[in-house]
């Protein structure tokens, strides 16, 4: 079992920054890949970014490339999502999820159906 807890969501103005955290317990964080997903009201859930176990391979959805950075601190069993230059369309509930064991070794996947454990979510609202 992997238990995930997100934090860091807030109300922020357009152009602002937030850092989301995903703290894991139950296994050390290098046993699985982590993905960040978001869901806006009335929209489908979408993958935002993911990071592999061990070698730190990362992927981003096109709309956040150059603005968001995913990273992991295995000593703290925590994965971060640094979000800069936030836009109103980034608004949504953000979830982290664990792919455990990793679907594909040494990489991560941007499809929620491959993720086995999910956190409860943290709300990000970008508005003036």
Report how far apart the termini are. Answer: 40 Å
Radius of gyration: 13 Å
Q: What's the total helix number? A: 0
Strand fraction: over 45%
Q: What is the arithmetic mean of pLDDT? A: 94
Any low-confidence stretches, pLDDT <50, length ≥5?
none
Helix content: under 10%
For the secondary structure, the number of strands is: 11
SS-based class: mainly beta
Order of helices and strands: EEEEEEEEEEE
How many strands, which pairing sense, and closed or not: the largest β-sheet?
A: 7 strands, mixed
What's the short story on this structure?
The chain is an all-beta fold and 128 residues long.
What would your notes on this structure say?
The protein is mostly beta strands and 128 residues long. Helices cover 0% and strands 45% of the residues. The chain is built from no helices and 11 strands. It has strands at residues 3-7, 11-12, 18-25, 33-39, 46-51, 58-60, 68-73, 78-83, 92-99, 117-118, 122-126. The chain starts with a strand and ends with a strand.
What brief labels describe this structure?
single chain, 0% helix, globular
Could you give the topology of this structure?
Layout: E1 3-7, E2 11-12, E3 18-25, E4 33-39, E5 46-51, E6 58-60, E7 68-73, E8 78-83, E9 92-99, E10 117-118, E11 122-126
Parallel strand pairs: 2-11
Antiparallel strand pairs: 1-3, 3-8, 4-5, 4-9, 5-6, 7-8, 9-10, 9-11
